[in-house]
Design goal:
By secondary structure, this protein is of the alpha/beta class. The protein is 30% helix and 24% strand.
């Protein structure tokens, strides 16, 4: 069932169920009452990443309080996406964009990876998680991907389960078309690894190519910025062997 983009969507942390009222947070109160100027009886969509999406009506028990009361289940909760997105942190503005697009493209886990040429850093997991929530509100996603604690690339690979295949974007690939390499992948538990602006180091590339659970793919004939490469790679993987397939 497709999302209803005509109605305002709001993420809440509380459990959701029929006629089970949820109090809006102070920030949500300000947004609903002062920014959107919604009145008593207005309807919005609410979701929590667990209980599906509900149509809810607004009531004002007091001047500074809004109660959201679910009255109809509009979409049941789908299975969580199993695609993990591994990325080298970028600078703040472009990191926000990267998080939003990864959520829109169906990533089920957002895993920062520290590489040798990484240019950005993780200053706040809460900020990244908030970006994931905002992206889900805006694009109709019901499952909120978790933002994991950053790990060094070597540490991540040493503890990796070989049952999940890592696909990494290799700018030095001898070919331009990623589809032949993707077509040979038999696993359905997948992770996509996108490197930093400076690319992977020679040492990192050799390490990745030496591992039996890693597949290298190219991303065409053009040089792409890291955030552009991430969106392109997510689209190719989802279309070829992911949940678009």
């Amino acid at each position: 069932m497709r999302a209803n983009y005509r109605m305002q969507r709001l993420y809440v942390e509380a459990d959701l169920g029929l006629e089970k009222g949820v109090e809006a947070s102070p920030e949500q109160f300000n947004y609903l009452a002062n920014v959107l100027r919604l009145a008593e009886g207005a309807e919005i969509l609410v979701f929590n990443g667990r209980d599906g999406e509900w149509k809810a009506t607004l009531t004002f028990p007091s001047r500074k309080k809004i109660l959201l009361t679910p009255v109809e289940l509009t979409r049941p909760q789908p299975e969580d996406c199993d695609l993990q997105f591994l990325f080298a942190p970028l600078k703040v503005g472009r990191m926000d964009y990267l998080m939003q697009k990864a959520v829109e493209m169906g990533a089920g886990l957002l895993q920062p990876v520290m590489t040798q040429h990484v240019q950005g850093k993780i200053t706040s997991l809460e900020r990244l998680q908030a970006n994931a929530v905002e992206a889900a509100e805006q694009c109709g996603v019901l499952a909120i991907p978790k933002v994991a604690t950053a790990q060094k690339l070597r540490d991540l690979l040493e503890g990796w389960s070989p049952e999940r295949r890592i696909i990494f974007c290799d700018e030095d690939s001898e070919t331009q078309n990623p589809l032949p390499a993707l077509s040979r992948i038999e696993e359905r538990r997948l992770a996509l690894l996108v490197g930093p602006e400076g690319g992977f180091s020679d040492e990192e590339r050799l390490l990745l190519r030496s591992l039996p659970f890693v597949t290298a793919i190219p991303l065409g004939p053009r040089i792409l910025r890291a955030d552009t490469a991430a969106v392109a790679a997510l689209a190719v993987v989802q279309a070829a062997i992911g949940d678009w397939h």
